[in-house]
Amino acid sequence: MNYAIILAGGVGSRFWPLSRKVLPKQFLKILGKDTFFEATIRRVEEIIPRGNIFIVTNVIYSNEIKKESRKFKVPPENIILEPKPLNTLPAVAVCAQLISLKDSLANLLVLPSDHYIKGRGFKETMLKALSLSAHGHICLAGIRPESAHPGYGYITTGPRIGRDGFRVESFKEKPDSKALKRLFKKSGLFWNSGIFCFKAAVILSQIRSFSPGLYAQISRIKQKKQIAKFWPKIKPISIDYGIIQKSKSLVMVEAGFYWRDLGSWDALSSVLPKDRQNNVILSDCVNLNSRNIFSCSYGSKRIIATVGLEDLIIVDTPDALLVCKKENAQDIKRLVELLRRKRKSCV
N or C, which terminus of the chain has less Cβ within 10 Å? Predict the structure, then answer.
């Protein structure tokens, strides 16, 4: 049977000052009436029965997850709480372990809760991926790259497998600039969407091979209440570095939908309507001769006035104001770490 694992434990610090430790990106309503998390469940419930949807999140988000998932009738027992965040591989591993105990043939769709997806092709693409993973493959959903973005994983495809898939020749997570230039000379290149399909038994076998320390702890967990006992012995690692970059069992389907990992304000800016000067204005802003700026205000009553600015991100909230060059948007994460060290309350 098919199951879904929604990863909802990330902090999303690059969306500071709107995203905070207690209210991370997946719980924000930035692009419509739904939070990113709610939009993810809406997509998934068209493919996977609600009773087979599992959610992995940090224990500090327990109340918000329960509140938002209640309207979709996701069973409370399907919410898996991490005592502390350890990146994506431990989250996937513990959920795969618990699902496999109830269904040894379980086929899993794993996806983040904070991506922006639109178009009608999501269901069709995921059904293709689940069909391939049912035959023992680890199936990735690939996105045709629009630029040499250094923050993504890169898939190089080989021959077709069946009607819908491709063999994966190589996978490189977040390549450096030299490796990225070499990759962009190849044909059959795709961004990794961060959406995976595999059988629970397959991913657990791969974890046993490539991350035996993690497997030793996860395999001892037989019930949710045992997670806290073994979690402190587990080291953090992403599924991309821990498994996908090492596995020889990879195949890929090309995504038939529009996808963006909106990991930063500049990425969000790229999907929103712009005026003639390429500005995105989401707030009460008076602008004079500014170009390529992103300006928004959440909960603040101040008017934002801009004159002759270029390539800036401006985000105003009641207790914090961010002004940042677009080219430095990825550094907001470092800024948040600095604010934490200084014990500022706005993080």
Answer: N
Residue 17's closest CA among 264, 347, 338, 306? 347
CA distance 85 to 290: 40
Structure tokens at 218: 């996860």
Contact 56, 8 (CB under 8 A): yes
Whether omega before 17 lies within 30 degrees of 0, making that bond cis, reads: yes
Contact 300, 317 (CB under 8 A): yes
pLDDT for res 342: 86
158-165, long-range: CB within 8 Å, 24+ apart, which pairs? 158/188, 161/132, 161/137, 161/251, 162/132, 164/128, 164/131, 164/132, 164/253, 165/128, 165/132, 165/137, 165/139, 165/251, 165/252, 165/253
Question: Residue 161 is encoded by which pair of tokens?
Answer: 């497998």
What are the pLDDT digits (tens) for 231-246? 999 999 999 999 999 9
What gap in Å lies between CA 185 and CA 215, rounded to an integer? 38
Q: What's phi and psi for 345, nearest 5 deg?
A: -80, -10
Residue with tokens 């997670």: 227
Closest CA to 56 of 120, 15, 5: 5
Report pLDDT digits (tens) over 179-236: 888 888 788 899 999 999 999 999 999 999 999 999 999 999 999 999 999 999 999 9
Q: Of 159, 111, 124, which is closest to residue 255 (Cα–Cα)?
A: 124
Domain assignments of the chain as residue spans, ordered by start? 2-260, 265-341
Could you tell me which residues come within 8 angstroms of residue 98 by beta carbon, excluding any fewer than 6 positions away?
Answer: 54, 80, 221, 223, 224
| Topology of the domain comprising 2-260 | Spore Coat Polysaccharide Biosynthesis Protein SpsA; Chain A (3.90.550)
Nearest to 205 by CA among 137, 302, 117, 159: 137
